[in-house]
Amino acid sequence: MATLLFWPVAALALAGAAGAALARNLVYAALSLGACLIGVAGLYLFLQAEYVAVIQMIVYVGGILILILFGVMFSRDVLGVSSRPTWGGRVLAAATGAVALACTVRLAVLVPGLRGTGLAEIRSSVDSWTGQISTSSPFHLGTLLLDGWLVPFLVLGVLLTVVLVAALGLVRKDAA
Amino acid sequence: MDPVALSLVCLGAPLVVAVIGAAAWRRVPGLDILSIAAQLAGTLSAVVLAFSVHSSTGVSFPWLSFPGTGIALSLGLRLDRLSIPMLLVVQGLSLGVLVFSRWYLEGDRFYGRFFASFSFFVFAMTGLVLAPGLLQAFICWELVGLGSYLLIGYWHDKPVVSEDPRYQADKPFFATGVIESKLSPSNAQFKAFVVNRVGDFGFLTGLALIAWVVSSWSGFAGGDPLSWEILFHAAGAGAFYQAHFLGLSGQGLLTLAGLLVFLGAMGKSAQFPFHIWLPDAMQGPTTASAIIHAATMVAAGVFLTARVYPVLTPDVLTTIEWVGAVTAFFAATIACVQWDYKAVLAYSTVSQLGYMMLGLGAGAQAGGYAAGVGHLFTHAIFKCMLFLGAAAVIHALHGVQDLGRMGGLARKMPLTAIATGIGTLAILGVPGFSAFWSKDTILAAAHAKVFIAEVAGTGEWAARGPWLLGMVTAALTAFYMGRQWLCAFAGKPRDMHLWEHAHDPDKASIAVILVLAFLSLQAVWTGSLNPFGSGSWLDGILRAPGGGILGTVPSLPESVEHYLHVGTMFWALPLVLLGFAAAVLLYVALPNMGYRTADWLRRDPPTNLVWRFLANLWFVDRACDLLFAEGLGRRGGQAVASADLGSGPSLDGAVDGAAGMSVAFGRLSNLLQSGRSQFYAGWSLLALFGALAIYLLGSR
Amino acid sequence: MIDVFLSGPDRLLPYLLVAAALFSLGVVSVASRRNAVGYLMGIELMLNAANLDFVAYGRFRGPEPAAEAQVAALFVIALAAAEAAVALALVYAVFRNFRDVDLDKIRTLNGD
Predict the structure, then answer these.
(1) Contact B353, B265 (CB under 8 A)
(2) Hey, is the C-beta of A94 within 8 angstroms of any chain B C-beta?
(3) Which of B656, B658, B654 is nearest to B640 (CA)?
(4) Which of residues 579-618 of B touch A (CB under 8 A)?
(5) Does the CB of B682 have a partner CB in chain C at under 8 Å?
(6) Which residues of C32-70 are buried (b: 16+ CB within 10 A; e: fewer)?
(7) Chains that touch B (3 or more CB pairs under 8 A)
(8) Contact A163 C85 (CB under 8 A)
């Protein structure tokens, strides 16, 4: 059952990404990006990262995507600037993508230990597994954030404040 | 007859003509007859030598002695199973080309000088072929370069083509890749000389290294450390393991020496990226190109590699194989978009030279030595003939070299068409013609090297690349050579006025072309009428040389060889047919569709990028022009020319020159600063992932 | 080996392949989009791909998912939000100056 659902969700993420990258009309591109983000949130669910999935929906889809849509709308360039694609850039991107794919496959397939890694094998290799997923519940995530990763957490807070001020500073009208 | 005397005839007769010509070419009336007579003597001597000399022989005399060290560098003659056939090829082809040139250059303003320069060239080439050691090889190597210089710059008073009204009127519509403001016979001769010089720097360094290593070896008993016997003997007995240089010893030192000497071969034989002089050399007379850029001088690099074969380590051989494969592929792709008759032949030569290096690099056990040297001989003959055919066509069309204005010439020049047709079929590697035997053997050798590598368990991917490139190039060769012949001789004439006046060359010239065409048939080389046989009476000659680090070379089992040969044929022939069929389709059968297809390929992305890349010769010429001609040459030249002091270099000029060089390099790197964010981001990401990939692929 | 490629959510490789594809599409956007906002969408795609990689590797390192990987993913999401905000503010400022968001036309840093 999980397998049946997995491929459509992955396909949604991929199709959304393709739309975001290749669509000429920017509104379509932004909405495709939204679909992609939702698909990625679904993939997080498959990876037992429910909290991350929810945050992804709230922050990415509900925040960043709205920002991007704002940006598209006010730039008044909904239809895309010109109809000629930048083939040079796409060739470059294809090359980079191919290299990235090669690196990924090399790491995932050839590194020993990851190749045969499936949940069934992993679970059967641990005697004391009780069948409950507990190490990534929000409780544990919160504990991590405020315990081991406290400093980055606080720095993140500072950063967000700085970003807020900076963004305001960037958009105010210059005084002469 | 005494072989030494005969060889001296081969050497001396052209030299005499050259000296007479150098002194008085304007006044002596019969220089052409004189050079032909000298060449006749040379050819006859070579034939007699070929039949009478049955074992290696030679003579040498010490020329430069260094008392106290026992080193006595020598000059002389060496006749063995590699030099005698090469001598025959050089002398015989020169005779044919000289006879042809009488008709081709008739009435030219510099008529006598051609024959004088040509004879000088033959003298130098013969000296190179008969060299008993690396020293004479190097000396004659440079002299050959001088001969080529003289011949390329034959019409030295011709202006740059951007200012030549005849060129501008006749140039092809797609004169691809020509930097018009810089192309002239005098620039081309200079370019050839300078590019060769770069390679020669490597050659000389390697030569010095070898001389030092061999002479400081404990078993060196005096004599010429650069002579073939002493060198191979020393290498085989471990001389390179006793020396230390730059932290290298043994195999590493041998590899270094081999690579340095190969650098010289790369320059002479127009391997990538030293090929840039060869297409420009088409500024010289076509008959000069027939001998120099088809048959002999460019073959000198291959010849040298074959000569030093016993000291080439497996690493050097793999490098040679790759360089050859890349060159072959690269030149073939460019030839596909050339519309100048001679340009197609020039790039074809570069490509075939790449094939020869591919063959040699495949290794002695894989049969590569025999393959490469065999192709050297067959290619010399049919390429010479193809160039003479080109000369006939160009002469018939009053100097027009544009394929787009030819067509249907077979009806007006039937004998030329038949001969060049045979040559084209030969270069395609069609069974029944000479290069089927030699080219297929090269591909089979490359395949055998893969097989050997698989058995040995190492280096198989390094061996697969050249083989794949060789196969693809075979298809490309079929396409562009077929395209050339079809555009020129088949189909409907595209320019009726030119077509009307076309005619075959005079009897002597056409006889030369037909003789060469006959020699391009496979039967001559294999000795049998079976087009699929793979043996040759040359096999005894082409056995890999023993000695040096090669020792004795074990050969592959007969069944394996047969299997690989048949397998290669199985793949190569369909590729060749495919390429040729594409040419027929585009240019003869459906010419309108062909033009529309070609137009579409040229205009619209993404294929127009490919076309622009090929049409600009992969930008190698432009890069070299920017970096060296402009950057180092012009700006660097300013460093030694100054207006202040009037003579000699000055500080001011030096500073100016240095500044100018920086500016030129800066302009080149400026291309990276386009200001476009996408460009920056895209390239940075590619570089980042490329680095990651290299790290990942290199670990474990 | 093909079964490893095609298997479902129980194996690591499909997630990595999706992430690689997302990344490549992000690079396509970044390398070829003329509009600045389209360019930013590419950046977001790349960040998502990296996040997916993080969480996937975290999931498969043992019988239970690693919380550290998810914390890292959370940080990345927060940073992506911050970066998107700043980037869009920048785009707005650029737009005010050049009256256009066509990256091909905004080339004043051109080296010539």
Answers:
(1) no
(2) no
(3) B654
(4) 605-606, 609
(5) yes
(6) bbbbbbbbbbbbbbbbbbbbbbbbbbbbbbebbbbbbbb
(7) A, C
(8) yes
Q: Would you call B360 exposed, middle or buried from its count of C-beta atoms within 10 A (0-12, 13-18, 19+)? A: buried
> Do B193 and B153 touch, CB atoms closer than 8 A?
no
Nearest CA in chain A to C91: A71
Q: How far is B582 from chain A (nearest CA, A)?
A: 27
- The residues pairing with B74 across neighbouring beta strands, listed in sequence order, are B62
CA distance A160 to A168: 12
Residue-wise pLDDT for B45-72, tens only, equals 999 988 887 777 778 888 888 877 778 8
Answer left, alpha or beta for residue B97, where phi above 0 means left and psi between -120 and 50 means alpha.
Answer: alpha
Chain B environment of A89 (Cβ under 8 Å): 678-679, 682
Report the gap between the CA of A100 and the closest CA in chain C (Å): 7
Instruction: Indicate the pTM of the whole model.
Output: 0.70
CB atoms within 10 A of CB C108: 8
Mean pLDDT, residues B521-531 taken together: 71
Report pLDDT for A132.
55
The residue among B685, B688, B695, B699 with the most chain A CBs within 10 A of its CB, best to mutate, is B685
Nearest to B682 among C27, C106, C107 (CB): C27
The domain locations on chain A are: 1-84, 86-127, 134-176
Closest Cα of chain B to A17: distance in Å?
A: 18
The pLDDT of residue B599 is above 50: yes
In this structure, of B228-242, B251-265, B587-601, the range with the lowest mean pLDDT score is B587-601
Furthest CA-CA distance within chain C:
58
Of B599, B340, B556, the residue nearest B449 (C-alpha) = B556
What pLDDT is recorded for position A133?
54
Q: Which of A85, A99, A107 sits opposite B690 (nearest CB)?
A: A99
* Separation CA B184–CA B194 (nearest Å): 15
ipTM of predicted complex = 0.87
Residue B328 in tokens:
């072959």
Nearest to B689 among A85, A86, A103 (CB): A103
In CATH, A1-84 is 1.10.150.130:
no
List the one residue out of B398, B416, B287 whose CA is nearest residue B345: B287
* Mutate which: C24, C25, C27, vs B, most B CBs within 10 A: C27
Beta carbons of C33 and B677 less than 8 Å apart: no
Which H, E and C letters describe B225-256, residue by residue? CCEHHHHHHHHHCCHHHHCCECCECCHHHHHH
* Inter-chain touch A93–C24, beta carbons under 8 Å: yes
pLDDT digits (tens, 9 = 90+) for A109-124: 655 445 555 666 665 5
Which two structure tokens, joined as six digits, stand for C43?
């950046």
Domains and CATH numbers, chain C: 2-98 (1.10.287.3510)
- State yes or no: pLDDT of A167 exceeds 50: yes
